[in-house]
Design a protein that fits this description.
mainly alpha, 2 domains, 16 helices, 63% helix
């Protein structure tokens, strides 16, 4: 496999800032989106089936392939030499392609592809990672350019690859390709329990599909976390592209999978994201209502079951309620929320929230 020059490492996007004018009169911020948005999409589906097989069954590979895989793992995990690890993984993959006993669509061969693609991604070689993950996806979904029926763990692995490809295409601003993979992953999960799976760009179809309550019986290899992760990934994509009418029903559908909502702090995360969508749509009343609902849930959550996600979600909800108040022109209330967000964030060592809250307070005090 030919090596390509490494692209520039991807940099984290700078948070959105408010545009303010220095006058004696306070000016409401003009941007509808939050500079600090909590979007914790479940990652179980991306990981499930992608790496577990590879690490637990190296001994099953033919000897020459096994030797190179072990060297790759050694240089990646113990010698901190990822470049040499890449070389060994590439050699192992080429040997697997030329081994008559191994099918390119098998977990053994796609496992090597996934390991190599993951290492490329860690190194910032996003296009190389994209090429290898696409190769693995195509080998599973369309071997010999012929679509096949997928089921069980193989299907879940292909869905995880589709989500990963969506993420990588999105990072390269290739929106059409990203949307294609995100939608495919949702379609496959919905088909697995006989829900209507044909997504199109008609708002009514989306609302009917994702907002209705359905008593679902999932196949044994799939969980509600898997389905929710796929819905959230697509919703987050649409929200980041300001396609709020598409994002909203997906978030609502993901929330409906947590029953009852009070059983998980992740419900509050979704409520926060729904609030963000309504803010983007200019409906501050509904945005405030959803944020307050999420805050109430996380504040009343069972203390013994609270996780880091619960604490961070509370901080972000306080901050976002401050922003909604600021957008509504209630500077006093906004300041109170920002203060609460900053104090909580300091207590739980949540630096991003501390920084954003301090910037917001500084902005208010300057006007």
């Amino acid at each position: 496999m030919a090596r390509k020059p490494a692209p520039e490492p991807l940099k984290q996007a700078k948070p959105l800032e408010f545009f303010t004018q220095k006058t004696n009169e306070y000016r409401k911020p003009t941007l509808p989106a939050f500079p600090l948005v909590l979007i914790f999409t479940a990652t179980a589906i991306t990981c499930l089936g992608l790496y577990q097989y590879f690490f637990s069954t190296v001994y099953k590979y033919p000897e020459e392939i096994r030797k190179n895989l072990r060297k790759g793992l050694y240089y990646q995990n113990y010698r901190n030499d990822p470049t040499r690890a890449v070389n060994y993984y590439q050699t192992a993959l080429n040997e697997a392609f030329n081994n008559a006993e191994l099918d390119n669509a098998s977990p053994e061969v796609t496992g090597i592809m996934i390991q190599l693609g993951s290492l490329y991604e860690e190194l910032g070689r996003i296009r190389d990672a994209l090429d290898v993950f696409t190769m693995a996806y195509d080998a599973i979904v369309t071997p010999n350019n012929t679509p096949v029926k997928l089921d069980g763990k193989i299907k879940l692995r292909s869905i995880g690859l589709a989500q990963k490809l969506g993420d990588l295409h999105q990072s390269l601003k290739q929106d059409e390709q990203a949307e294609k993979y995100y939608i495919w992953s949702v379609e496959q999960l919905l088909q697995s329990h006989s829900e209507v799976a044909q997504l199109n760009h008609d708002n009514n179809s989306r609302n009917n599909l994702f907002s209705k309550k359905i008593d679902m019986v999932l196949p044994p290899w799939m969980t509600f976390t898997d389905l929710g992760a796929s819905l959230e990934a697509l919703a987050a994509f649409y929200s980041s592209r300001y396609k709020y009418a598409y994002a909203l029903p997906l978030y609502l559908r993901a929330l409906s999978l947590i029953n009852p909502p009070e059983s998980s702090c992740h419900s509050a995360v979704l409520m926060n994201n729904i609030s963000e969508v309504f803010t983007g749509m200019g409906n501050l009343e509904l945005a405030q209502g959803w944020a307050e609902r999420g805050l109430k849930l996380v504040e009343n959550f069972n203390q013994k079951k609270k996780t880091r996600e619960c604490d961070e979600c509370r901080g972000v909800l306080l901050f976002n309620l401050g922003m909604i108040s600021e957008l509504s022109g209630n500077v006093v209330k906004a300041s109170e929320y920002y203060e609460k967000a900053r104090n909580l964030a300091k207590k739980i060592d949540y630096s991003d929230c501390v920084n954003e809250a301090e910037l917001a307070l500084k902005r208010i005090n300057m006007n």
